[in-house]
Amino acid sequence: MKTRQAAIIGAGAIHTCHVEALSHVPDVALRALVDIDSDKGSRLAAGYGCQFYQDYREMLLDDAVDVVHICTPHHQHKPMILAALAAGKQVFCEKPMVMNPLDVAEIKSAAAIAQRHVGVCYQNRLNPTSLAIARCIEENALGPMRAIKAVLTWSRSGGYYAASPWRGRFATEGGSLLINQAIHTLDLMQWFGQGVSRLKGVVDSTLLADEIDTEDSAMATMCFNNGARGLFYASNCHASDSPLLLELEFERGLLRLTDNELWQLCGDDRVKLASDASPDGVGKSYWGIGHQQAIRQFYRALDNHPEGHYCGITEAAKSLQMVNAIYQSSLLRKWVHITE
């Protein structure tokens, strides 16, 4: 089998997860790294034994590159995806795919014309706890779902935003807490609830109001397509990054994710179903442990492997619609309906 050649655009913190994942995918080699910081990028590329480019458009001229991984600030995702597709490359992008749901149709059209795949990294779907929840729902082990509750309290300082000025700005990040940190939680909620039909939410900026022009806290109530209701609260104003608290209530019991462990509670019975082990030194614990699996499955899909699947354009758009709906609802102070 021909070895696929991959290029990574963006040498920020998250790119190390992609480098590590690619090293474990059979018949894949890292051919190039792209970053606007030539000193940093060339040093890293030398360590990886790959080529370095300062301009991603120059890299796209390399016919040997098969797949492009996009690990850049949010506002750069759309033009880079479109350029990579136009160059005939397969694309694997960090979330969010785009900042505005209205841009999704343009990405779909470009992918269809190029006859190429676009995968988006919602790696938390592949955490052991997430997969165990999905299995329980599929098997109807606890009966009909009644509700989902999620609480995410993390810490982001003014220094975090000062170090990367594109963050905390609607023009370049597309928001803040919701579209960056909490979008994975919203994705899991809608995935477990089979999509969201409507929601009402509020966003605000509190402790970080002098640092950003976007939100640092948010809450929402939502109605899922499976008939359950949802309660969501998130903030970047905590003193530390607490593990996600996620609770799913069913007719015959509860599933509770706490401290990265999933428990099933039925009356007095309490059973541990799964645990998310810490990453093996690559990346940060709150990123989850699914990057390697997400990237491996994307490449399997490119090879038409029966186990190959990934979060594509349509699926990735769902959490983005939720983010946009919460912003709209907060502005309008009313329920917002979400259509497929």
Automatic annotation (TrEMBL):
GO terms of molecular function: glucose-fructose oxidoreductase activity; nucleotide binding
InterPro entries per the UniProt record, alphabetical: Gfo/Idh/MocA-like_OxRdtase_N, Gfo/Idh/MocA_Oxidoreductase, GFO_IDH_MocA-like_dom, NAD(P)-bd_dom_sf
Gene transcribed to yield this protein: gfo_1
Enzyme Commission identifier(s): 1.1.99.28
Protein name according to UniProt: Glucose--fructose oxidoreductase
Keywords: Oxidoreductase
Domain GFO/IDH/MocA-like oxidoreductase stretches: 132-254
Boundaries of every Gfo/Idh/MocA-like oxidoreductase N-terminal domain copy: 6-120
Catalytic class of the enzyme: oxidoreductase
Keyword Oxidoreductase: yes
